[in-house]
Design a protein that fits this description.
single chain; 280 residues; mainly alpha; two-stranded antiparallel sheet; 12 helices; membrane; Transmembrane protein 41aa; transmembrane; VTT_dom; TM41A/B
Length: 280
């Protein structure tokens, strides 16, 4: 009971910090009122009256390509005027999501590429993913061991058995789990201290193992921030870029898979139980 109360206190404190930080959101760019020519053009296309008052831009979760571009442009504006605040807000939101195993890392990685560019965005994504996963590891170690075992007894037992079978090459086994996840990343983050995975191995395996995934997401964000329509996205230049990104991401995966076939002891079953593959 004490561990549950401690975890609740940590979540409340982190949520309060993130909420307090959002209260200091600077004023964004305001939409310019339409001039007479624009009003005539809009009026000719629509029978509905057009609101010409200035409205501040607001942050919202994007539902399509255009909204993602608008959000990226808005945050780029904030970054130009308030670089430290945008960096702090992005890092805080990312660590909050990762520490408490909240879905959405792919969106934040794409946003990192759109806002910070290919190099700074990739560095941020890798560092924040690793730090957030390590914080999840420490929270589980301090507060959640008994609850995770009670909620997922079969999965914890299976992972424990595989860790014991691969003790002689544990680091490469962890890399394999990141490249070819037998279990979701959030579950591996929470269960790692329970199955006695050293935090140093865990930290390094997250940084290296999720590098291809982060790279693809960040590069996608860079491209989405540069295209103005879906027609630009399917151009030959973009297709070649996507091909290059895929090749660079697949190289380390192929190396890890080749090593796993020689050294690791794995029983890989499909989710529907129709196939079974044993690697020794």
């Amino acid at each position: 009971m004490r561990s549950l109360l401690g975890l609740i206190c940590v979540i409340v404190a982190a949520s309060f910090y993130l909420y307090s930080l959002s209260l200091y959101l600077p004023a964004g760019p305001r939409r310019r009122p339409l001039n007479a020519a624009d009003r005539d053009h809009v009026g000719a296309e629509s029978e509905h009256p057009t609101d010409t008052s200035e409205e501040p831009s607001r942050l919202k979760f994007p539902a399509d390509l255009e909204e993602l571009r608008e959000l990226a442009e808005l945050l780029q504006f904030y970054k130009t005027q308030h670089n430290t605040y945008v960096l702090l807000l992005f890092c805080s939101a990312y660590l909050y999501k990762q520490s408490f195993a909240i879905p959405g890392s792919s969106f934040l990685n794409i946003l990192a590429g759109a806002i910070f560019g290919p190099y700074e965005g990739l560095l941020l994504a890798c560092v924040l993913t690793t730090l957030g996963a390590t914080m999840c590891y420490l929270l589980s170690q301090a507060f959640g061991k008994q609850y995770i075992v009670n909620l997922f007894p079969d999965k914890v037992s299976m992972l424990q058995r595989k860790v014991e079978d691969n003790q002689d090459c544990l680091f490469f086994f962890l890399l394999f789990l990141r490249f070819f996840p037998m279990t979701p990343n959030w579950f591996l983050n929470m269960s790692a201290p329970i199955v006695n995975i050293p935090i140093t191995f865990f930290f390094c395996s997250v940084f290296i193992g999720l590098l291809p995934y982060n790279f693809i997401c960040v590069q996608t964000g860079v491209m989405l921030s540069e295209v103005s329509s879906l027609d630009d996205l399917v151009s030959w230049e973009r297709l070649l870029q996507l091909l290059g990104i895929a090749c660079m991401a697949l190289v380390p995966s192929a190396l890890i898979r080749r090593f796993s076939q020689r050294r690791l002891k794995l029983d890989v079953r499909s989710t529907n139980g129709l196939t079974e593959k044993k690697v020794q």
